[in-house]
Amino acid sequence: MKRSLLTALALILVLSLGLAGCKSSSESTGGKGSSSGGGVMIYGRGGDAVGLDPAHETDGESFIVTEQVMETLTGYKKENTDVVPELAKSWKISDGGKKYTFTLEKGVKFQDGTDFNADAVVKNFDRWMNGDAAKFPYYASMFGGYKKDPGHVIKEVKAIDDTTVEFTLKRPQAPFLKNLAMSPFAISSPAAIDKYGDKYGEHPVGTGPFKFKEWKRGDTISVVKNDKYWKKGLPKLDGVTFKVIKDNSSRLNALTKGEVDLIDGVNPSDLDKIKADNKLQIFERPSMNVAYFGFNVEKAPFNKKEVRQAISHLVNKDELIKNFYNGTAEPAATPLPSSIAGQNKDIQDYGYDEAKAKELLKKAGYEKGFKMDLWAMPVSRPYMPNGQKIAEAIQANLAKVGIKANIVTFEWGTYLEKLRKGEAPAFLIGWTGDNGDADNFLYALLDKDTIDSNNYSRYKSEPVHKLLIEAQSTADEGKREELYKKAQEIIHEDAPWVPLVHAKPQLAGTNSIKGFYPHPKGSQSFVDVSMK
Amino acid sequence: MFSYTIRRIGLLIPVLLGMTFIVFMMIRAIPGNPAQLILGQQASKQAIATLTKQLGLDQPWYSQFVHYLTGLFQGDLGMSLKSRTPISEELWPYLAATIELSLVAILIAVVVGVNAGIISAWFQNSWFDYGVMLIALIGVSMPIFWLGLMEQYFVSIKWDLLPTTGRDNIRMPVEAITHLYLLDTLLEGRFDQFIEVVKHLILPGIALGTIPMAIIARMTRSSMLEVMRSDYIRTAKAKGLKMFWVVYKHSLKNAMIPVVTVIGLQTGLLLGGAILTETIFGWPGVGTYIYDAIQSRDYPVIQSGILVVATLFVLINLFVDILYAAIDPRIKY
């Protein structure tokens, strides 16, 4: 007995010595105090990446990692979705918008030491256009299909010389430059693709500011500084580690404790707590989304414009924002958020007005109201944190004019499938933009071509269709904006939806973080972020 | 004993087969198309159709089942639909994380639970006894996510004693060899990291261990009370043996059988049921792995994940059954 007591005491002694020793060593390896403004930034987030070959993936958690490792030909401005040069330093558009000639940056190398050049660009595009929907899903949505499909926009990608690459299109595609800036179309090292084959998604290699280092699935992904990065003096950080902490409150706890430096997915209800902590700062991501309450315009009573307008007068957006978004959203008057060029700011929203709603209902012959099914989203999305609660708030307002809404919901996959088939009479849903172009909202969600796809309202308007198609093939940005503004006016009058809000996702970080701007598209490179 | 073990392992096969079949049918009965969930909201109809076909989900269920079973018998757990990585490659790190956490949790539960139960029985109807039983009652009904967040708030943030989340200090990550970090850090001779890993294990270990701890305490107490009323204990007391030895030696050994059974069952349960703890503590364990797979209808991952956890569960209970004979020589197989 005495002997075991002694052993236990000895063990405790050793343990406490170790604890003391570890404290000093963690301080020295912390890296936070280094003078170069570098250090490793730990980014806490709610989910792991699915894979690290961006062309293959569709989720933001994958893209935020691949954007550190790889770069695209064109890029976005820091604060909005205007196109700026990236790997292509300039370009010329000719032949009525059917030919794009890009001049590439000279002397850029992939992280595996091979050259980035026109050939590499061609090889990447060849790989994607010879793929299929299961391999490169985004490619088809943005470029109209694959090589064998008649709708495919790209006719040919050709290397003219080492630093010149020429794209020939079958028809003009106005958002082409914005499409190229999307994360899935980042340029990979062809040598690495050959080397790793099917496993390339675990060993991404690009020209970006950080090199991929390690992936512990479900836990962390780390990238480290690319010492040979082509932009002088960048990146400032020594590396970034992405850490999965699923629970929003725990993630904030880890930030408060200093175990992570930056987190996304902050609960709006925690914002006051963060503001009160002088060691933390809040970052607000500009909105590139829309949450909406849609009607199936083929189904009675929503086939009547007056009914749709009446309901538009019955939704109190300010209340929704106050109660369910903690003020972190803008009321939506049109489908387009303000980060996207072409938003029509002159549109006067319907506004909450019971009397007007009653009048319109009377006109439509529904003086006494009616019964309806209101579909509510089963999952939480940045644009709609709680579909069920929002549905209940709308339900209460509808009841005031005698409309009895019965809330219905389905499992998410089924929900989307049924919406697509037009089975929902009235529904809550939303959209997050892909390429930051108005086309990606208005055409994708409200054109007659996209019925059976993302036009869940089954809204069919010839004048809108004409405007949207014209805008797709117009190169002049100013003219396009005019066309989109006109389309929004017609959509506003027809009211196939009640646009609800444009939500602004919130991030929080320690005060040491400098130079970080959350990009509206949902992720961004940390190339010029530093930690003091 | 040997033939008993063989017979029990033989019995495993039909049990696991039956379970695989039930899981297989159940996850297909819940609505939701994996292809839709993988490709997301923006996906076109054609893309979903193509992917459904590639994943073999357009095949009738029986041919999918036969296909899956054929793979299993060849030792192939299948391929994740979502990450398109073999499950056998993916699973171990998650499983190791859970095993490490579960072992720590059950260790805390056993050490605290058994002793609390013994002392309660020893001083039956004392304030200590009432106190322990009240705490045990609270412990059984405690919501883990709440307990976890409270631990983080007080122990980590307010008192600054232990880290909030994760398995290791991310600023000096552990080099994974076996993925059991306690072992890995020792293999690398990094004692500082070992301490760091221990520190990370304490809070989630307590959160996960609380319910089993309460159950074990109650079970130990009632089992001890029963034994302490028996004749041989009276004899031991009568011959003047110190009470400590009466309780810890003579009573405990005889009271252990039901307690060991409960410990075995609880350990098994922890392996699959640690989802809440894992979520709160940013722990990359197998519970989260399967939970995410259910969210995205990643059928092979759900099937194989549950299969592996169930196999472990059955093996632990087999081990417990064999342990009976060691504890009580009167038991023979």
TrEMBL record, chain A:
Q: Where is the signal peptide?
A: 1-20
Q: Which Pfam families match?
A: SBP_bac_5
Biological process, per Gene Ontology: peptide transport
Top-rank taxon of the source lineage equals Bacteria
Give the GO cellular component terms, alphabetically. ATP-binding cassette (ABC) transporter complex; periplasmic space
- Keywords of this entry: Signal, Transport
Question: What PROSITE patterns is this protein classified in?
Answer: PROKAR_LIPOPROTEIN (PS51257)
Q: Where is the Solute-binding protein family domain?
A: 83-449
**Which is an annotated GO molecular function term of this record?**
peptide transmembrane transporter activity
Query: What InterPro entries does this protein map onto?
Result: Peptide/Ni-bd, SBP_5, SBP_5_dom
Family the entry assigns: Belongs to the bacterial solute-binding protein 5 family.
PANTHER family xrefs: OLIGOPEPTIDE-BINDING PROTEIN APPA, PERIPLASMIC BINDING COMPONENT OF ABC TRANSPORTER
Output this protein's name: ABC transporter substrate-binding protein
Say which species the protein is native to: Fictibacillus marinisediminis
Q: Lineage of this protein's species?
A: Bacteria, Bacillati, Bacillota, Bacilli, Bacillales
From TrEMBL, chain B:
Instruction: Output the SUPFAM superfamilies linked to this UniProt entry.
Output: MetI-like
Q: Enumerate the PANTHER family for this protein.
A: DIPEPTIDE TRANSPORT SYSTEM PERMEASE PROTEIN DPPB-RELATED
Q: Does the keyword Amino-acid biosynthesis apply?
A: no
GO biological process, any: transmembrane transport
* This protein's name: ABC transporter permease
Statement: the UniProt record of this protein carries the keyword Membrane? yes
Kindly list the organism's lineage: Bacteria, Bacillati, Bacillota, Bacilli, Bacillales
| One GO cellular component term | plasma membrane
Question: Where in the cell?
Answer: Cell membrane
Question: Member of which family?
Answer: Belongs to the binding-protein-dependent transport system permease family.
Chief localization class?
membrane
Residues annotated as transmembrane? 9-30, 91-118, 130-149, 201-220, 259-281, 301-327
Q: Which keywords are on file for this protein?
A: Cell membrane, Membrane, Transmembrane, Transmembrane helix, Transport
Species name? Fictibacillus marinisediminis
Kindly give the InterPro entries that the UniProt entry links to this protein: BPD_transp_1_N, MetI-like, MetI-like_sf
Question: Which residue intervals define the domain ABC transmembrane type-1 in the entry?
Answer: 95-324
Q: How does it sit in the membrane?
A: Multi-pass membrane protein
